[in-house]
Design goal:
The chain is of the alpha/beta class. The chain contains 10 helices and 12 strands.
Length: 286
């Protein structure tokens, strides 16, 4: 029996414990972590993965790119793929800081509730990895997306990065104060809060009293939640005709999705699981 080996290429100073646990739960027999990885370092690691097993066994070696910075992880993924040629490749997944699996789970649940095509969507505090991916995925689903951050310069840079990577338009808005954020919430059909844990971005009345808002989601698992008035365990819970998804309600699908993606890595030697593919899998599972 050939062992399923997952090599964890993490851009941070230590490999993520979370990613290691989910990798084992997803079916890996052994998880080998490498820390402080940069794009310049991946050559020998990839060579070790692609040259050691024969064609029938290559599918049992896979790579996972993680870390807290999405730009660094994207560079590592690009460097990994650049080393592949012909049949000399292994499957690879990128999920920097849970960006793809978490965002895909939320967007899949929102899309299941009602189509996103043409809907006005707002991602509050969306300049981090999960917020960036959520904004991109909402736009890929056909929503008209606005992303906010405290700094307009940084938010515009994030919007430009999304456009380069995904070819979609995301409007950047500075929203450093609660009044501005709540005004944007009231004018949006779909609202997703992606801020840091323990910080309320908009109060309950901003979405519960809005005649426009139909669906809200929040990635923050700790009170006070990013959107006031919902609970972490909400999963399509109705509040006056509006559906709410809390962090734990999203997290159940996120974990199942993450495990499923790990399992798929060992079914072939040429899979690349990044945002688009992971979103497609999430929509199948939602």
């Amino acid at each position: 029996m050939v062992s399923k080996l997952l090599y964890q290429l993490d851009t941070d100073i230590t490999p993520s414990v979370f990613d290691s646990v989910v990798a084992y739960d997803g079916g890996a027999d052994h998880v080998i972590g490498h820390a402080n990885i940069s794009a310049a370092m991946v050559g020998p690691l990839v060579e070790g993965a692609i040259y050691t097993r024969g064609p029938r066994e290559k599918q049992f070696t896979a790579l996972f790119v993680g870390g807290s910075r999405i730009d660094e992880a994207e560079a590592v993924l690009g460097a990994v793929r650049a080393k592949f040629f012909g049949k000399f490749c292994v499957s690879v997944m990128m999920d920097s800081n849970g960006c793809n699996t978490t965002a895909a789970a939320a967007v899949a649940l929102l899309a299941k509730a009602a189509p996103l095509t043409g809907a006005s969507a707002l991602v509050l505090a969306g300049t981090g990895p999960v917020g960036m991916r959520a904004a991109a995925m909402l736009a890929l689903e056909g929503a008209q997306v606005t992303i906010t951050g405290r700094s307009l310069e940084k938010t515009e840079a994030v919007s430009a990065a999304i456009a380069r990577r995904f070819g979609v338009k995301v409007i950047a808005r500075a929203a450093a104060d609660g009044e501005t954020r709540e005004g944007l919430v009231r004018a949006s059909e779909v609202v997703l809060a992606a801020g840091a844990a323990g910080h309320e971005l908009a109060g309950a009345a901003s979405w519960q009293d809005s005649p426009i808002t139909t669906r809200v989601a929040d990635f923050n698992p700790e009170p006070p939640f990013g959107l006031g008035g919902l609970a972490a365990g909400d999963k399509a819970k109705e509040y006056g005709g509006k559906l709410a998804f809390g962090a734990l309600g999203i997290g159940g699908l996120k974990l199942k999705l993450h495990r499923a993606c790990i399992g798929r890595l060992f079914t072939a030697n040429d899979l690349v699981l990044d945002a688009e593919n992971i979103l497609a899998i999430a929509k199948e599972m939602a």
